[in-house]
Write a structure and sequence with these properties.
Layout: E1 4-9, E2 13-20, E3 23-26, E4 36-37, E5 39-42, E6 48-50, H1 52-60, E7 65-67, E8 79-81, E9 84-86, H2 88-107, E10 113-118, H3 124-136, E11 140-146, H4 147-156, E12 164-171, E13 176-184, E14 187-196, H5 201-220, H6 228-244, E15 250-261, E16 264-273, H7 274-287, H8 289-299, E17 308-312, H9 319-329, H10 342-354, E18 365-370, E19 374-382, E20 385-395, E21 399-401, E22 403-410, E23 419-425, E24 435-442, E25 454-461, E26 467-473, E27 479-483, H11 489-497, H12 506-522, H13 527-545, H14 548-566
Helix pairs in contact: 2-3, 4-10, 5-6, 5-7, 12-13, 12-14, 13-14
Length: 567
């Protein structure tokens, strides 16, 4: 029987593991290391280099090298390397091919099947992009498994008899996942998941990097952002500083020959203290509480009922993370499994379950959830008037998967011939405010009075977290369907709006933004709604881009709108 390997395809690093003698074993790469940097270099001759050597080349040939590609998965962005363009899936496939080769060298056999992990809060587009990357690497992707679920599996395989509520706090290089699981009698049941697929250790690095660059510019009058090699060196120094400050109270950054002034080389020297770093990242750390609260609410589990707070991901080594979690959950967080290896070990366990490689004593049943609300755009009648663009939920978030849900809708005009099905992901009442996933047309509706012809909409969400949508005319049986494709454009735009919370000035605008969001709920379907909604979006974008003048103008405009509506 051929092996199925488990792969953790991470933002910063990636790992591969396999089941041997009923236990997960992490496989070393070609440099004899367990951890492979998720960095790809494409040389001028077209040679593809992955891992540590590629990371070293980042400082020398930044135009030929890329890292953190995971954050681009599910988007239509292109990556320019060595005068060519690549999709995020292509770059990710090179990392997967490298890990596949490492596994084949270790196992001395051809590997064709894999379980690949993704953040629990990855969207449908991002999951599909991951499957596509796996297929491009030559894998049959047997399962996409959520990272916190995988981490809990790595813990659970050694604690089969436990009955516990486990809160997995997974903070990696690029993403945050918070998942609440219940473990009992060999069953691992996911109760709820939440998170942020644009928050991780790399954001901490960026905060530190920007502080260093700004300080240097203020002191020397030179903006290092225009020099790719200088930025790459500072980025590396910021990451090393972050890692060191998890152990030490201070760290000295010393980068000689970083720039030139008056025809003389100058260096960058900067001491960073742990308290300075903690103050810098505090708002980002504090923002993770929102995901914790969502998970507790959706799972209907009280803080007092949590038995274990399981830390996963390299960023959880930062002391302030542990202190923060202990304070808000009143429980000491634990690193019961290596934070860097927990996810890949769990992926290997899942691979072993699929491949029947585990003994009966190690047999474990897993259930997972859909972390997002899924639905369609509809038209409703309010006060006798038609209101378009109303979001109707078909699959609520944190429902156990796989799941199939159906709803029946009626035509809205006389002799209606066709209907457009628009599929969204999110929780806003107005459909278009949510993340647009895809659309399709169902035609051939028989001529009839309004509301007489019925359309059955079926949502099928599989174990890999991938959505199929089907629409059927009840009277004739005619149907149309869609396997949601990777569009990514609106997802990127919508997700970016939430980044205003990460701004250093976010606190100044929370009150007015909260007022506006509450007013949107109250005025849904009214003529005032669109103006308020549009102005609020513009303000959030301006905050993200730190456009001070525009922020002030939009804040005043928003205040005026709210004043008129509240009168």
């Amino acid at each position: 029987m051929s092996k199925i390997i488990g792969i953790d395809l991470g933002t910063s690093t990636s790992e591969v593991a396999v089941i041997e003698n009923n236990k997960p074993v992490v496989i070393k790469n070609k440099e004899k290391k367990l951890i492979t940097p998720s960095v790809v270099e494409i040389s001028d001759s077209g040679e593809i280099i992955v891992g540590e050597y590629a990371r070293e080349q980042l400082l020398i040939k930044p135009d030929n090298t890329v890292m953190e590609v995971k954050r681009l998965m599910g988007t239509d962005k292109k990556i320019s390397l060595a005068h060519n363009e690549y999709t995020p899936q292509q770059i990710s496939s090179y990392i997967l091919k490298y890990l596949k080769s490492c596994a084949e060298d270790y196992l001395e056999e051809k590997i064709e099947r894999a379980v690949i992990t993704v953040p629990a809060y990855f969207t449908d587009e991002q999951r599909r992009a991951t499957v596509q990357a796996g297929e491009m690497a030559g894998f049959k992707v047997e399962r996409i498994i959520n990272e916190p679920t995988a981490a809990a599996l790595a813990y659970g395989i050694e604690h089969m008899e436990d009955e516990k509520h486990i809160l997995v706090y997974d903070l990696g290089g690029g993403t945050l996942d918070v998942t609440l699981l219940e473990m009992f009698e060999g069953v691992l049941e996911v109760k709820a998941s939440s998170g942020n697929n644009k928050l991780g250790g790399k954001d901490f690095d960026e905060k530190l990097m920007n502080m260093i660059i700004n300080d240097f510019q203020e002191k020397e009058g030179i903006d290092l952002r225009t020099d790719l090699r200088a930025v790459a060196r500072i980025k590396e120094a910021a990451e090393n500083c972050k890692i060191a400050l998890s152990i030490e109270e201070e760290y000295n950054i010393n980068l000689p020959f970083i720039a030139e002034k008056n025809n003389q080389p100058i260096g960058l020297v900067r001491k960073v203290t742990r308290s300075e770093f903690e103050e810098l990242i505090w708002e980002l750390v504090k923002s993770t509480e929102e995901s914790i609260n969502v998970v507790l609410k959706d799972s209907k589990i009280l803080k007092i009922d949590i038995d274990i707070v399981l830390l996963v991901g390299g960023s959880t080594r930062i002391p302030i993370i542990k202190e923060f979690l202990k304070e808000i959950l009143d429980k000491e967080p634990k690193t019961l499994v290596d934070p860097d290896m927990a996810v890949v070990m769990g992926a290997a366990v899942q691979a072993g379950i699929i491949n029947n490689e585990l003994s009966q004593d190690n047999d474990i049943l897993i259930t997972d959830v859909c972390p997002y609300t899924l639905g369609i755009a509809t038209m409703e009648f309010m006060g006798g008037f038609p209101v378009p663009d109303v979001y109707d939920v078909i699959i609520p978030r944190n429902i156990t998967i796989p799941v199939v849900k159906e709803k029946i809708y009626g035509t809205v005009v006389e002799n209606q011939e066709k209907v457009e099905i628009k599929v969204y992901q999110g929780d806003y009442k107005k459909a278009s405010r949510n993340n647009f996933l895809g659309n399709f047309i169902l035609g051939g509706i028989p001529e009839n009075e309004a509301f007489k012809e019925k359309i059955k909409i079926k949502f099928m969400y599989d174990i890999n977290g991938i959505l199929q949508v089907e629409a059927r005319i009840v009277s004739t049986g005619k149907q149309a369907s869609i396997s949601i494709e990777t569009t990514g454009v609106k997802m990127e735009e919508e997700m970016d709006l939430d980044l205003w919370k990460k701004s250093a000035n976010a606190r100044k605008f929370r009150a007015i933004i909260k007022r506006a969001e509450n007013m949107l709920e109250e005025y849904f379907g009214s003529k005032e709604y669109d103006e308020l909604d549009e102005t609020l979006k513009k303000l959030k974008k301006a905050i993200i881009k730190e456009e001070d003048k525009k922020i002030q103008e939009l804040k005043e405009e928003l205040s005026d709108i709210l004043f008129d509506m509240e009168e």
